[in-house]
What we know:
The complex is a heterodimer. Chain A is α/β, with parallel strands linked by helices.
Amino acid sequence: xxxxxxKIRRTGxxxxxxxxxxxxxxxxxxxxxxxxxxxxxxxxxRQVDAGSCxxxxxxxxxxxxxxxxIERYGVHFVASPRHADVLLVTGPVSVHMETALLRxxxxxxxxxxxxxxxxxxxxxxxxxxxxxxxxxxxxxxxVDAVIPGCPPTPLALMQGILQALExx
Amino acid sequence: xxxxxxxxxxxxxxxxxxxxVRRGSATQxxxxxxxxxxxxxWGRAAQVAAGYACRWAGVxxxxxxxEFVITAAxxxxxxxxxxxxxxxxxxxxxxxxxxxxxxxxRMERHVQDMYGLVFSDHPDARRWSRHNRWxxxxxxxxxxxxxxxxxxxxAPEQDYNFIQxxxxxxxxxxxGPVHAGIIEPGHFRFQxxxxxxxxxxxxxxxxxxxxxxxxxxxxxPGLARLAGRVSGDSTVHHAWAAxxxxxxxxxxxxxxxxxxxxxxxxxxxxxxxxLGDIGAICNDVAFAFMxxxxxxxxxxxxxxxxxxxxxxxxxxxxxxxxxxxxxxAAQLSHxxxxxxxxxxxxxxxxxxLDDHPSLEDRLATTGVLSAEQARRLGCLGYVGKASGxxxxxxxxxxxxxxxxxxxxxxxxxAGDVEARMQVRMQEILDSLExxxxxxxxxxxxxxxxxxxxxxxxGEGIGLVEGWRGEIISYVRFGADGRIARYFPRDxxxxxxxxxxxxIHGNIVPDFPVCNKSVNGSYSGHDL
Lengths: 168, 527
């Protein structure tokens, strides 16, 4: 236990603050304000991988590490679409995931936002449309905002979520 | 030790069994050895190989005019033997390898779904890659099947016959395809009594996006980009395997500096994923301290990737003929300087991982895969190494630049979640050691050779030890330097079935940590 406490003490706070990464902090503050204005300070996101290669998921995961710590801006990821304000969808929509995506969309209470994250979700990306892929998420469900990138960086994801709030 | 020392004995056994080898070639798909056999002997050839302690590593097919050409890989002592046969498209029938190698089960069903090639004595007639969205008699990888064929209307899949349990207190838990976390989709069907898992069945294929079909007709750089997205966490290793296959087909020599830089990228990818996995395993047993520590180290590692290699996950860094970017002296010294700080961090964290009582309570003896189970399935990477299987291509059949490096491959015998984490812990240290050598002895010179496509029919095989284990990529070129066939065999094909076995008798709440310890790729498997 002492070792753990010692490591915690020596690691200190790593969450990035104003002087070290001004862009992140600025985006974060705007995000916090947006979430406060439109969602009473708490934005619940349900992430849906509709066919991605898993790279987008890795970067979405990174939003929860100590550097980005997106929860401090009022954004958190939830396990059920019934708890979600936003669906964050990745991947070209594989034909095999189309039904599951539609049902997840239907299970999300209105009003809801859909954000298509990553090039594949935005426009089909490297996979496009085929017998196995429906391409962009907007070919299957209504999309409110897209976040380009292959995959989008954690900062780009935060900026994209912010933009989606500002658009609506 | 010479490669293929053992082959003459296998050939003698084939002769004893009257299995006729029509043609053999040590060069056509080098470093693998190719044997062409009759379709009637297909199953027995596997049976003899199984009796000769070979492991089974993959099967793929291809339509060439009115014939299906089927190739299967068996491996012994790190040497890959490719068995090949042909059957007419009009009579697509072959015997199965699954009775002798249970790991062949799903890949044969994949071939069956994609080509309509029937493995007559396969023990499981259910479809695998094909769900209910394309018609039963349409086969996507046949030449006559149009890439843009319209799928059948969207509907829930309800006619897949899962194994059922009956009896007092037995119940079923369906999970997925949309999971509760930020992870890839797939379906798990548990049969349980109380907390105890009686049986688990995986139903994968949800992220099948037609990679093999859309590869057809691409040029070499286009295939490298696609290969880098077979499984996003293995972008370096899949791109390397695909480029290696293309370069062998085209007889292109990659410059030494490019090969060393590829290994730098590959070891950095291995470390990044292992850091993430160790943290995630700890998170699945609610050890938040360790999750945050390893997430932090992974983030720092990815930022160095972005600063020195141009991409956080290293996508598109490997291109046909070499690497896309030659790091400058400052970037190289930055990469070199990042190694010792990570070692120091791990030196304070590993002792806690090693003997933290509540962690040991959850990880030790959880999700045990016996050595015999692992061997029968042909498990790869950390899953095999944790159960005593000592396979590592970087050491057993080294490809440049590993032929000049000393690769240490850690093995454990417990076969539990803890052992799978310990393999990762040791591999991080070993990869850091390799990075030191690679960066300290980086050759000068160009970082790519000009790409020149081979003539139609040129084929090659890529064999690399990915961070999940061995990757096999097959490439054949058609006319105009365009790809006629690409099949990447991700290690997940052979590790996913292990999860169904190792979960037996464990409690349902331990499933997430068992799953994370295996960490199969859905995308790499579903293609």
